[in-house]
Amino acid sequence: MMLTFCSGKIHRATVTGADLNYVGSVTIDETLVNAAGLFAGQLVKINNLRNGISWETYIVKGEAGKGEIILNGPPAHHFQKDDMVIILGYVLVDEKEVKDNKPTVVFVDGKNVITEVKKGTL
């Protein structure tokens, strides 16, 4: 049996933009994507700490070092610049390998610069 687990998390990131007219997705600074062990095109859930909205979409890598977190398309109605969010990536894990799943948590400051990376704990 396959189970869904968190594989990576970007904790308390700051939304830098929202573009309703873009096709869809979330643009995330490539440095953050890589540090969290996430991938372009991967399904993520984004939780808005301001209003409690949760949204699922896929990752588009943004330019490294710019700190971008931009909600594109329909989620632009629910996420605004300066909102604080938690971004969660998921992976399917065989039940026999559950104990080996070690999620990566990336902590950032108000400008989405990495302050700490922890492996194996949420």
Task: Provide an overview of this structure.
- The structure is a single chain.
- The chain is mainly beta.
- It has one domain: Barwin-like endoglucanases (Beta Barrel).
- The chain has one helix and nine strands.
- The chain has one helix at residues 30-35, and strands spanning 2-14, 17-19, 26-29, 43-48, 54-62, 69-72, 84-94, 104-108, 114-119.
- The chain has a nine-stranded mixed beta sheet with strand order 2-6-3-5-4-7-1-8-9.
- The longest helix is centred in the N-terminal third of the chain and has 6 residues, at 30-35.
- It starts with a strand and ends with a strand.
Into which percent range does the helicity of residues fall? under 10%
**Spatial gap, N to C terminus:** 23 Å
The helix/strand series, from N terminus to C terminus, equals: EEEHEEEEEE
Kindly report the CATH topology: Barwin-like endoglucanases
Radius of gyration computed on alpha carbons:
14 Å
Low-pLDDT regions: none
- What is the number of strand segments? 9
Average of pLDDT: 95
Q: What's the CATH architecture? A: Beta Barrel
| Total of helices | 1
Basic shape: globular
Main-sheet strand order equals 2-6-3-5-4-7-1-8-9
Number of domains: 1
Question: Can you tell me the CATH class?
Answer: Mainly Beta
Protein structure class: mainly beta
